[in-house]
Amino acid sequence: MTLDELRNLDLDINRGGEWPAPVKALVMLAIFAAACGLGWYLDTSDLLDGLAQEQQKEQQLRDEFRSRQRVVANLDAYRAQIGELETMLGDMLRQLPTRTEMPNLLEDISNQGRANGLVFTLFKPLDELPREFYAAKPIQIKAQATYHQFGAFVSSIAALPRIVTLEAVSLSAQPMKDFNRDSPEPLNIEATLQTYRYLDEDTEAAPKPAGKRK
């Protein structure tokens, strides 16, 4: 087919049957390509997006599998760590006095203070503060002693078999008549000691409010 024939070709679609065979072939090829492109856009692109999502899920599952595989490989070590933590927890719970042991602990703290030279003007156990499995027992104290005497007292209560912490300490230097002038100047001490009681199964539950009578 010559160039002149192409120029003089009537491209009216209604007369397509009269087109030369090469033109018909080109038109059919163009239609086929357009159909394929439209089909890919409507169907294949969605499938490719779905494939990408599935590949991403596969990678996530692989990562999760590797993570769980590491956990399983270290399971014996984790169990050993849990056993050690349970032992440590048991040791700490044994340092928490029960309700019947609490008065003796308070007396031990007071005796340690006097033994180290503290002169108490206030030794007041406050109400318990319940926690999840234990109750905190604050003890408000006011005393006079030298700095070294107070340090020795702190060391002595830290050495007790029960857990006792020292909080909110306030020290002020004020001479007292009862002390010898040649001795170190005493301090006025205000602090809160805190010990803890284990809430075991023998702890009495709080009474439930009685229902109203009709």
TrEMBL record:
Question: Does the record bear Transmembrane in its keywords?
Answer: yes
Query: One GO biological process from the UniProt record?
Result: type IV pilus-dependent motility
**Keywords for this entry?**
Membrane, Transmembrane, Transmembrane helix
The record's listing under Pfam families reads:
PilO
Q: Which InterPro entries match?
A: PilO, Transl_elong_EF1B/ribsomal_bS6
Q: Which domain of life is it from?
A: Bacteria
- UniProt keyword Transmembrane present: yes
- The transmembrane segments are 21-42
Coiled-coil ranges (or none): none
Indicate the secretion signal residues. Answer: none
- Protein name from the UniProt record: Type IV pilus assembly protein PilO
The record lists the organism as Plasticicumulans acidivorans
